[in-house]
Specification:
single chain, about 425 residues, four-stranded antiparallel sheet, 16 helices
């Protein structure tokens, strides 16, 4: 078994982030002076921000150059169509997952959240009942407030994993297809389903078997499925990501996919995403999207996305490798410093879903960690059913930052004994 020192050494690696920036330049105190996103402005300077899904890593040089070239050319106007982004996303999807996307099936949206809202408006204009596997990204609950949907939470099935003390415990692991079928076939029925694949916050890429069954049920019961696949480019080296659209098209399910380079390449503020129709039938409806859905998209974001999918794939590979190393470091730190914390490592992305219920910090452990350890995590209670006592921790940071955060929490727990 690799010990903590080895894990830290592996995470440090060559001493630089995926863009070649030395780790010491990712010190939170320095980043706070340079950056203005909510990650660095929401909390006081003494708080380590490991909450919102933004990377500390520097943006890929290829993307930086693409944005600079666009500004130098004064290419900062409005958009009406995806243009080169359709080719870029189609090429990346084909090379990465064998998913063949037709360019005319690609539509612009400001971001994935906007894409989901606009897709639901087009496909289910009267609203209805929407099923949502939980715990899930809190933003889903927020965006659905814009729509006339009753949310039906369907908790994920637990998987079983071993703790550092040899005990077994459960954490969400797969879609509860029996419960989904029951909801679809119920008297009230389900009109729409919001799939997050890979699932946020668990980092689970659902299997082709699960997705095929979901598609069959959706086709049988006429349930529209919108699949948020924004975390897919960050699938770890040992895992497999399966896009939902080809499966939906084969089953005859009405579906679209929303995605962007924003999570994989740290471009959340660039405001550019795509909605991809699963088939011609879905595309006919996407063609009725209001023109403003496209024109609100940032042209600089489009240039950034094109550069990401076309030119910054090596940066993405280095980033995934760093995330994997940081995850091994986190596992080692938890086993050594916080053995009461339960954590089932995900196989996609940089978000760790950790169970703090065993720390003895009360009903709101995340709030105690924030106020007394000065570490900001996402509160699991905001993620829906099954999230109470959990926290989402961002691993896309310098290994030094991760060590500092766990040390602070461990000191808090030790002082409370």
């Amino acid at each position: 078994m690799t010990d903590g020192a080895d894990c830290f050494s592996q995470a440090i690696g060559a001493g630089v982030d995926p863009s070649g920036l030395p780790w010491h330049e990712l010190d939170p105190a320095l980043l706070r002076e340079k950056r203005n996103s909510i990650k660095w402005t929401r909390y006081p300077a003494d708080v380590l921000p490991l909450f919102v899904a933004e990377m500390d890593f520097a943006v890929a040089p290829e993307i930086q150059r693409a944005i600079i070239r666009a500004v130098e050319a004064s290419d900062t106007g409005y958009l009406a169509e995806p243009g080169p982004l359709a080719d870029a996303i189609a090429s990346f999807a084909q090379d990465s997952w064998g998913w063949q996307i037709r360019n005319e099936h690609v539509h612009l949206a400001t971001d994935v959240a906007t894409g989901l809202v606009e897709a639901f408006r087009v496909f289910r204009p009267a609203g209805g009942r929407l099923a949502l596997p939980t715990p899930c990204y809190p933003g889903f609950f927020e965006i659905l407030l814009e729509l006339n949907f009753e949310i039906v939470e369907i908790p994920l099935l637990p998987g079983v994993a071993a703790g550092s003390d040899g005990s077994e415990f459960g954490s969400a692991g797969s879609l509860d297809l029996a419960a989904i079928e029951q909801a679809f076939a119920s008297e009230d029925g389900i009109d729409a389903f919001l799939l997050c694949n890979p699932h946020n916050p668990h980092g689970i890429p659902f299997t082709s078997v699960e997705l095929s069954k979901l598609a069959e049920l959706a086709a049988k019961h006429d349930v529209f499925v919108a699949s948020d696949e924004i975390h897919a480019p960050l699938t770890h080296s040992h895992a497999t990501f399966t896009p939902f659209a080809p499966i939906a098209a084969k089953a005859g399910a009405h579906s679209v996919t929303t995605t962007s380079a924003s999570k994989g390449w740290n471009l959340a503020g660039s405001k550019c995403s795509v909605i991809v129709a699963a088939d011609d039938r879905a595309n006919e409806l996407l063609q009725t999207l209001p023109p403003e859905v496209a024109t609100r998209t940032s042209i600089l974001g489009l240039h950034a996305n094109v550069a990401a999918f076309n030119d910054a794939r090596e940066w993405l590979g280095r980033t995934v490798s760093q995330i994997e190393a940081n995850q091994r470091l986190l596992i080692s730190l938890l086993n050594d410093r916080l053995p009461a914390v339960r954590y089932v490592p995900g196989s996609t992305g940089y978000l760790a879903w950790i169970d703090l219920n065993g720390l003895g910090l009360g009903d709101e452990p995340v709030e105690r960690v924030l106020q007394e350890a000065r570490v900001a995590l996402n509160n699991g209670s905001d993620f829906g059913l099954g999230g109470a006592g959990f926290a989402r921790l961002n691993m896309a940071a310098s290994p030094h930052t991760i060590v500092q955060a766990i040390d602070r929490i461990a000191e808090l727990v030790s002082a409370r004994r």
